[in-house]
Amino acid sequence: MKCFDLLEVTIDHCIYGSATQRAEIFDFVGRIPINAHGIGLSIGTDVPLDLAYLDQVAAIVEQLHAPTYSEHLAFTRVPGRDLANLLPLPKTVAAAESIIAKVRTVQSRIGVPFLLENISYAFEWPDSNLSDADFLNLICRESGAGLLLDVENLYLNAQNHDFDAYEFLDSLAPDTVREIHMAGGIAISDAGLQRSFLADTHSHPVPDETLDLLEYALSLYSPQTIILERDDRLDATGEILADLERIRLCVDQWSKHV
Amino acid sequence: MDRQTRLLEYLTSGEAIFGDVGSRSRNPLLQGFDRALLHIEARFSHEKRMEKIAAVFPKTFALFGDDRDAIVREFVHACPPVDISRLENARQFYNFLISRWENRPPALRYLPDVTTCELAVAQVRIGADSPLAVAKRPTHKRPARNRPSEIRRSPLIALLHTRFDVRPIFEGKWGDISPIERVVPLAICFRGGEIGIFELAPEVFDLLAALDTWVAVDELPNAKGLIADLGEAGLLEERR
Fold this sequence. Notes:
The structure holds 2 protein chains of 2 kinds. Chain A is an alpha/beta fold.
């Protein structure tokens, strides 16, 4: 525990997890700062939000004494079908307006600031006509939501979809980024693709390119927390601790620079 | 909404996951998407789902042998995902297998028993970890000497009959021993932090099976010793 400055708890594990899991999570309250992160809201599904779920989230955020609540800008399900995987939304003004209204509902029921996270995505909607940054800026500006910037997702998307990650960072509104996620994934190959596809698996060391992007992001924004996400190959503790050191070094270097 | 629904239908189809021939991709609502990238998304999501299911049925999957790919493919076509949870996906897979085996019995005739036991183990494990169960977990104190006035079967056990004695498979002895064909009344329970699978005498099985609801002990005057033993083994709940 002494290796960590804070923990991020997946809210859905508190809601659906076993009593033992929940007891273990709540045992951390008061011993270390905790961020609250969700995976089950599916804010992008084109139906009204599940208010009962949101009320459960509100109660858990309060129990965790979390300073913020974050969720993914994505959808995972429709009535009767649940992919259990984050899917992108069409990057259009209409989709943004729908999300803005839902963010306001979230903000009215949760007692802490709400942050949206940029996801990694495999495919684009054909009618998308906004850039990733413009879509996020529009939603955050109009709703007051902050951005949980997943730097690894940005790196993967830039590689997979051929855009400039540094331009993306330059385009974000400066006061938008409140928290940062870091992670490492894998390259997967497929007969239908001309090159490997980078997938966000939270299973491997943070790539150097993602650390470079973090360094650049820190020159632009002042996030309150940086979380290293890791939910696979957890026995590789050496890798995880080394990643923490690399991220800390990056933060320290930028602090000295400032 | 309609586009999201069509997209999810496609992403969970065999056509998107395995490249099977189908008509979904011709749906006009899906025009303009990059099919190769949709396939990546579909494959990735499918693999995550099957990881959850395989975690519940490790022995079943190992015993599928060469049938594994065909079974998984049929499952995808028959049962799209409807829930994020591991247990719900496992139940879907179990129901699919049982239905499949009614028409086409598996090469290993004891496989349905193994699968049933694995699902029961998962259910008992989750039940044992429920808030109610944790609150009621025994504390290793000596029980009070007073006789219970009412008893019922512990909600933390599963009872089932198997057609083969598959316990050796769960005791790490598979490969050496082929399960013997005989009807076995089994109890699966969570004791001391571990799952236990053990055979019950038929009359004990019947008694436990009948104790779905609270029953006054006085109604079972001849079972006093048995009730004490079953309570000691954690198979009964008692209240006064």
